[in-house]
Amino acid sequence: MSITGHQLIEWGFAPGIWFKDALPVANRLAAEGADEAAIRAAVAGMAPPATVPLKPAGEVAYHLNIEAEHPHETDNIAAVERHMAALMRLPTAVAGAIMPDACPAGAALGTIPVGGIVATENAIHPGMHSADICCSVAISILGDVDPKRVLDLGMVLSHFGPGGRAPDRRLAPPDDVIARFDGNPFLSGLQQPAAEHFGTQGDGNHFFFVGRLKSSGAVALVTHHGSRKPGAMVYKRGMTVAERWRQTLSPETPEHNAWIPAETHEGRYYWEALQTIRAWTKANHWAIHDLVADALQVTPEDRFWNEHNFVFQRSDGRYYHAKGATPAWADFAADSSGLTLIPLNMAEPVLITRGRDAANGIGFCPHGAGRNFGRREHMRRNAHRAEADILAEETKGIDARFYAGIPDLSELPSAYKDAKAVRRQIERFGLAEVVDEVVPYGSIMAGDWERPHRESRIAAKARRQGDQAAG
C-alpha cells in the first residue's frame, strides 16, 4: 500500500513539513512488509515534539570577552549583552560567547550581535549568519612586487558596488561548484546570479587591501567579502523554511530567530547549500587574486583564507553560529591552514593569527575591530567637519581609494573600535596568538556609491517644494 499524508492525519499525526521526512520512511517500511503498528511507531518517533517555549532567563550562560576601556563603550556592551541574554533563551541554545569587537547588528531583541557566537543542538538558524553568508578574508603572498601596482590593478580588475559584473567582464565560476547547485532546493535557479556576481566584492566594509608582511617585507593582497547575491538568496529561502518550522515547533520564538532542524530533509539540504556557498565564496576570492597575480606575472608564494560569518559544526555535533567571529581551532575546516586573518581598519595591520581554541571563547576569536556607533551616528558626530579634512587626517600615510570615486567616511578608521584595545583584549582573554602582520600600504573600498542618488532625490524634492511654494 502507499501511505500518504492523509493516512498519517487519519492516524492522528499533526500535519507539517516533517511529513516530507516521515512519508519515505513509512512507505519503505510498508514495502518491507511491516505492519501498521510498526509503521505508526516509526512515524511517531519522527514527529516533532510539542511546541517548546523559550528557556528561563539565565538558564544558559554565555562568556563575555570584552571590556569597556572608554565611557562610550559601556552602552555598546550593555546593548550587546541584552541581545545575547535573549539569544540564550532560545530552545536550541546551549552556549554562547561575545568577542572583543562586539557591537549590535540590529534593533530587534535577540538579533545576534557582530562578535557573537551561539552554539545550538540540532538547529541551524539562518538569521544568525545573515544574508552575507560566508563573509570571509583571503590572503595571497605576492612576493617582491610594487604595492602601488597591485592597488592600481585592483581598481581595474576587481569590482565593487551593487550588482554583478558587466557581461563583457564576467568570470566563470568553477564548473564543479556550479554543478552542486542542481538538485538543491535552496540553490536551484541561482546559477545565473552566481555567474553574474562572481569576481565581485560588494560594498560596506568589504575591501581590497595591500600591504607588506612584517616578518619578511613581502607584498600581500588581502580581500574581504562574502557570497554576494547567491548567498543572500540562500539566506532568504532559508528564512522562509525556518519560519514554517518555527510556527510548528516554537511560536514563542521571535521570527528572526527561527531555525531549521538540522537532521530533517530541509536541514540536510540547507547544510549542503551552506557548504556550496562557502566553496563559491572561496573561489570568488581566488578569482580576484589570480587576475592580479596573472597581470603581475607572478605565482603567489602562499595563500590561505577563513570565513567569519558562517555556521560551523564541531566534533561535539553542535552547530556554532558565528556572526563576525573567527574560528580559532586548528581543524575548523578541511582546508584550514591553521592560520586566520583579523583585519582591524584600513590604517592598521591585518593580523595573521593562530587560534587558541579558548573555552571562554567557545573556540572563536574576533573577526576585526567592530563599531561603537552605527554608520549614521558616526556621520552625525562628524557632520561639523569638512570631508576633505577628515579624509586627509585619517588616511595619512596610506593609499586609500574608493572604487566609486566618492569617499565613504563611515569606513574610515575612526568609525571602528580602537584597534589597539581590540588587540589588547585578544591577548587578555587568550583568544588568539598573533604570528605575523600585514602592514598597510593602501586599500580599496566601494565608497559612497549611493551619494549621487541621495543628492538627486534631495534636489528633486527641493524643486517640488519650490514649485508648490511658487504656485
Overall description:
- With 471 residues, the chain is an alpha+beta fold.
- It has two domains: 5-46, no CATH class; 128-454, tRNA-splicing ligase RtcB, CATH 3.90.1860.10.
- It has helices at residues 5-10, 19-31, 36-46, 72-87, 126-129, 147-157, 175-179, 191-196, 228-249, 265-296, 375-381, 387-394, 419-428, 451-470; strands at residues 63-64, 93-103, 114-120, 123-124, 135-143, 207-213, 219-225, 260-261, 302-313, 319-323, 325-327, 340-342, 350-355, 364-366, 399-402, 432-445.
- α4 (72-87) links the parallel β1 (63-64) and β2 (93-103).
- The N and C termini lie far apart (78 Å).
Give the SSE layout.
Elements: H1 5-10, H2 19-31, H3 36-46, E1 63-64, H4 72-87, E2 93-103, E3 114-120, E4 123-124, H5 126-129, E5 135-143, H6 147-157, H7 175-179, H8 191-196, E6 207-213, E7 219-225, H9 228-249, E8 260-261, H10 265-296, E9 302-313, E10 319-323, E11 325-327, E12 340-342, E13 350-355, E14 364-366, H11 375-381, H12 387-394, E15 399-402, H13 419-428, E16 432-445, H14 451-470
Parallel strand pairs: 1-2, 15-16
Antiparallel strand pairs: 2-3, 3-10, 4-8, 5-7, 5-9, 6-7, 6-16, 9-10, 11-14, 12-13, 13-16
Helix pairs in contact: 2-3, 6-10, 9-10
